Glutamine synthetase
Amino acid sequence: MRIALKCSLLSLALLTFNAWGQIPGLATCTRTANLLACIDAEGNAYSVNTVGSTMYLRGFEKVGRRYWAQTNSRYGQLTFFTGIASDGEAWVGYNRRVGWTTINRFSSSGGSSAKFTCSRITGC
């Protein structure tokens, strides 16, 4: 999985819809009641739409010139996600919140996989 996609997935998982509008140096975003659309300084773009406890993400990764889509389904403190990119790469994973800590795991058809823990205090 490419670095830009990993960063955007991680950022979305950590923000959990605390959409900050415009964050200097990171991204410029537009927000409605349940849609967030952002573009960063490098030209990567993504949008997030929520329907109940399901989150739909779509994006464009400029470096790889590929489009991608991901669906996240939340069940209490556990969120499962699946995604696919225009070049055929697919991925699955989950994140689990335990207090202020998030345990994350993913695997992709491109051969990438990882397990990492993030804290609101110390980061990832």
Remarks:
- Residues 67 and 117 are 27 Å apart (CA to CA).
